[in-house]
């Protein structure tokens, strides 16, 4: 069992380390507490010596009565929530059921996936190619579209931290349907929306680079580098405008009434090395005033760069002088990381990362104060390495503590009333395993969080699962937060493929996934049984339209000539849910999945003469192995 104690902050814990601990783990005392052990590990190089030291981990509490509702889901029963988790370097979104923590499906976004046929049919392959043609992505921040401050179940949006892209996922079919390669931006870290109605999607550019980055300027001069916030139309997925800022940006979140979009930032120094980026003791939260930015675009106060209007939002720009700045720079302790807006829209809370405090920014003060720091109305001391904050809707915030390997629960209004640096707002801390990055509570990003479940997305697992070699799984931990009297309760560990980041949790009642495709939602013509055609177009092109159903394809064989371009369009005419078929053609790199009532198309070249079996790779019936067709490629005369 986990602890439910009101703990002192980490720097008040007894120092049980020997002075030589920094030289290696062998110098640690046998009785060293796990919390101090983890801190020592962080100092000695990323906890490299932790594996196998299970005797130093948290003790089990006996006789504790669980306050959490039943989190085991019996066979045949459904979870209450969908959780959409960024898959990190996998480039996908993991969909997990809560509270079971069962992985339901993975949605490929920025990479090919043969199981889904994604990147193999013409439409998805062209979408990936037109969005830069990269072979991988790094998904961090899934966000579900909202109407009136609540999830509407239409779309999810997610960023590509690696390649500066944003994608949209259609939640009717749980499929990626649009990707935009954002101009003037390297490394899209945050992805959040203008609320309450998802009127814009924001891509938060992290890496500073020359703008335009075409070699025309002095590439060695960091003063010519910049980072931009990109505003994307959620329907067209076109970039509407961008704002150039000082420093690097990190995470972001929007105010609930639609006026501001907030980002954290680091490297206010504008440096290019770690030493240079950490000279100052302050960085900035940036509050983008959306109506003023749009007014500047309307007035023509921008420069067009790579066909996008770019508004100058740097500190010394003309648009930031006077009483109506387009971007407010709010100084906070060094390198703030996560930022999120409270459900009541009163505060934006930025986590310190390199400082043990969080900064509580009162939103309605931002445009009223002469000194931007006066908008910071609370700065509670939470622990070591605060990164991200979620909410339960009862006035409590939950912040991940990376170095302490804990989640801390604290009272927001008490933090506003207390002196800066006070620990009094801290209600409770719970150990997690280990080094949490993001965390998310049920519907925390909406105006009305559910306040029952929280997932801590931990960067390290170490001794929590069976060993699988040097790369351990990550560890997503489910914590019950619905009983303020009993306290937080850790109820489940779940291994995850590297590297999960942020997540959104949505109640199942707000989603309505389709069981089969609606042919009217597709651009391709439906081909029913008896409507199949095969036609030669010109000298070297063959166009095929056929159906698939259990045990057979529309054509039992197809004969073409060496060198022909083959355009093959297939409709799955099944009406039964979950009855998938595919078109797999070995040696031609074709694997096209076709779901019930779906039509897909693939184009390839028949390079070599011979006989090539076409088969269905999704098991569909007792005669699955007999479901075949032949592609006969005759030698060119």
TrEMBL record:
For this UniProt record, the keywords arranged alphabetically read as follows: Calcium, Copper, Metal-binding, Oxidoreductase, Periplasm, Signal
- Report the protein's function: Nitrous-oxide reductase is part of a bacterial respiratory system which is activated under anaerobic conditions in the presence of nitrate or nitrous oxide.
Q: Spell out the InterPro entries in the cross-references.
A: CcO_II-like_C (IPR002429), Cupredoxin (IPR008972), N2O_reductase_N (IPR011045), NO_Rdtase (IPR023644), Nos_propeller (IPR041114), NOS_propeller_2 (IPR041142), NosZ/Cyto_c_oxidase_sub2 (IPR051403), TAT_signal (IPR006311)
Give the Cytochrome oxidase subunit II copper A binding domain ranges: 539-637
Q: Which reaction does it catalyse?
A: N2 + 2 Fe(III)-[cytochrome c] + H2O = nitrous oxide + 2 Fe(II)-[cytochrome c] + 2 H(+)
Species, as recorded: Halorubrum aidingense JCM 13560
Matching entries from NCBIfam families are given as: nitrous_NosZ_RR (TIGR04244)
Q: Which EC numbers does the record give?
A: 1.7.2.4
**Recorded GO CC terms:** membrane; periplasmic space
Q: How does it assemble?
A: Homodimer.
* Cofactor field: Cu cation; Ca(2+)
Pathway noted in the entry: Nitrogen metabolism; nitrate reduction (denitrification); dinitrogen from nitrate: step 4/4
Q: Report the protein name in the record.
A: Nitrous-oxide reductase
Keyword Secreted among record annotations: no
Q: Which GO terms describe its molecular function?
A: calcium ion binding; copper ion binding; cytochrome-c oxidase activity; nitrous-oxide reductase activity
Q: Name a biological process GO annotation.
A: denitrification pathway
Identify the PANTHER family for this entry.
CYTOCHROME C OXIDASE SUBUNIT II (PTHR42838), NITROUS-OXIDE REDUCTASE (PTHR42838:SF2)
Cell compartments where the protein resides? Periplasm
Region annotation (Disordered) maps to 1-27
Q: Which family does it belong to?
A: In the C-terminal section; belongs to the cytochrome c oxidase subunit 2 family.
Keyword check for Lipid biosynthesis, yes or no: no
Which SUPFAM superfamilies does this one have?
Answer: Cupredoxins (SSF49503), Nitrous oxide reductase, N-terminal domain (SSF50974)
């Amino acid at each position: 069992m986990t602890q439910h104690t009101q703990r002192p902050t980490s720097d008040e814990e007894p120092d049980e380390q020997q002075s030589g601990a920094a030289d290696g783990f062998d110098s640690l005392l046998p009785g060293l507490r796990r919390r101090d052990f983890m801190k020592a590990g962080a100092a000695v190089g990323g906890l490299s010596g932790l594996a196998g030291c299970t005797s130093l981990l948290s003790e089990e509490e006996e006789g504790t009565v669980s306050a959490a509702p039943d989190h085991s889901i019996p066979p045949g029963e459904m979870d209450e929530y969908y959780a959409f988790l960024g898959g990190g370097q996998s480039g996908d979104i993991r969909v997990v059921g809560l509270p079971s923590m069962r992985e339901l499906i993975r949605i490929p976004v920025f990479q090919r996936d043969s199981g889904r046929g994604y990147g193999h049919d013409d439409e998805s392959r062209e979408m990936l190619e037109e969005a830069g043609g990269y072979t991988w992505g790094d998904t961090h921040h899934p966000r579900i579209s909202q109407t009136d401050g609540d999830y509407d179940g239409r779309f999810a949006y997610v960023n590509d931290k690696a390649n500066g892209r944003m994608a949209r996922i259609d939640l009717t079919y749980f499929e990626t349907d649009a990707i935009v390669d954002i101009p003037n931006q390297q490394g899209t870290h945050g992805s959040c929306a203008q609320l309450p109605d998802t009127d814009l999607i924001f891509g938060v550019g992290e890496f500073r680079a020359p703008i335009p980055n075409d070699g025309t300027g002095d590439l060695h001069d960091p003063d010519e580098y910049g980072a931009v916030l990109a505003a994307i139309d959620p329907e067209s997925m076109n970039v509407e405008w961008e704002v150039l800022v000082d420093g690097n940006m990190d995470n972001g979140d929007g105010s609930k009434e639609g006026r501001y979009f907030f980002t954290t930032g680091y490297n206010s120094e504008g440096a290019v090395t770690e030493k240079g980026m950490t000279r100052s003791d302050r960085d900035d939260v940036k509050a983008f005033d959306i109506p003023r930015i749009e007014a500047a675009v309307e007035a023509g106060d921008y420069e067009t760069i790579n066909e996008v209007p770019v508004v100058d939002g740097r500190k010394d720009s003309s648009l930031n002088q006077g009483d109506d700045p387009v971007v407010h720079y709010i100084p906070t302790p060094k390198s703030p990381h996560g930022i999120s807006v409270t459900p009541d829209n009163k505060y934006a809370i930025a986590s310190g990362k390199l400082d043990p405090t969080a900064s509580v920014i009162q939103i309605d003060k931002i445009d009223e104060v002469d000194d931007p720091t006066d908008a910071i109305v609370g700065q509670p001391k939470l622990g070591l390495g605060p990164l991200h904050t979620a909410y339960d809707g009862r006035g409590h915030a939950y912040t991940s503590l990376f170095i302490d390997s804990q989640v801390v629960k604290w009272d927001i209004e008490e933090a506003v009333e207390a002196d800066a640096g006070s620990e009094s707002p801290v209600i409770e801390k719970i150990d997690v395993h280990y080094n949490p990055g993001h965390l998310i509570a049920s519907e925390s990003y909406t105006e009305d969080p559910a306040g029952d479940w929280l997932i801590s997305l931990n960067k390290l697992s170490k001794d929590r699962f069976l060993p699988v070699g040097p790369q351990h799984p990550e560890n997503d931990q489910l914590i019950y937060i619905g009983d303020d009297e009993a306290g937080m309760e850790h109820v489940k560990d779940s291994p995850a493929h590297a590297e999960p980041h942020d997540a959104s949790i949505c109640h199942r009642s707000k989603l309505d996934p389709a069981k089969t495709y609606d042919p009217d939602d597709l651009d391709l013509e439906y081909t029913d049984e008896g409507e199949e055609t095969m036609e030669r177009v010109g000298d070297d092109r063959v166009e095929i339209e056929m159906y698939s159903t259990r045990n057979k394809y529309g054509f039992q064989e197809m004969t073409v000539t060496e060198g022909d371009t083959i355009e093959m369009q297939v409709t799955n005419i099944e009406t039964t849910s979950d009855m998938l078929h595919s078109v797999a053609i070995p040696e031609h790199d074709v694997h096209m999945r076709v779901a019930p009532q779906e039509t897909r198309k693939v184009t390839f070249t028949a390079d070599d003469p011979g006989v090539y079996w076409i088969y269905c790779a999704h098991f569909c019936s007792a005669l699955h192995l007999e479901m075949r067709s032949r592609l006969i490629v005759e030698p060119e005369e």
